[in-house]
Amino acid sequence: MSNVISASQLTLAYDNGKKEIIKNANFSIRKGEFVFITGPSGSGKSTLLKALYGALKPTGGNLIVGGLDLANITTGKLQELRTHMGIIFQDYKLVNEWTVAKNVILPLMIAGYSVDVQHTQAQRLLKHVKLSEHSDRYPLELSGGEQQRVGVARALAKNPVVILADEPTGNLDDYSSNVIWDLMENACQQLETTVLVVTHKIPTIFSLPYRHFIIESKGVYEVH
Amino acid sequence: MKFIKNHLMFILPLMAILLGIEFYLVFDRTTNSYEKGLKEGYTMFVVSKKPMTLSAFKALNTHIESFEAIKRKDVVSDIVKGISKNNEKAILKALPFFYNVGLDAYVNTVELDKIKADLEANADIERVETFGNSYRSAYKLFAFIKFTLKLFIGFMGIVSLFLIIKQMEIWKYAHKQRMQVMEIFGAPLMLRSGVLFKVAVTDAIVATLITAMIFLYIKFEWAAKSGIDIIVKNKENLFRMSDMGILLGAALVIVIIAVYSVVFSSSGVDE
Ligand SMILES: Nc1ncnc2c1ncn2[C@@H]1O[C@H](COP(=O)(O)OP(=O)(O)OP(=O)(O)O)[C@@H](O)[C@H]1O
Ligand SMILES: [Mg+2]
Question: Are B187 and B214 in contact (CB under 8 A)?
Answer without folding.
Answer: no
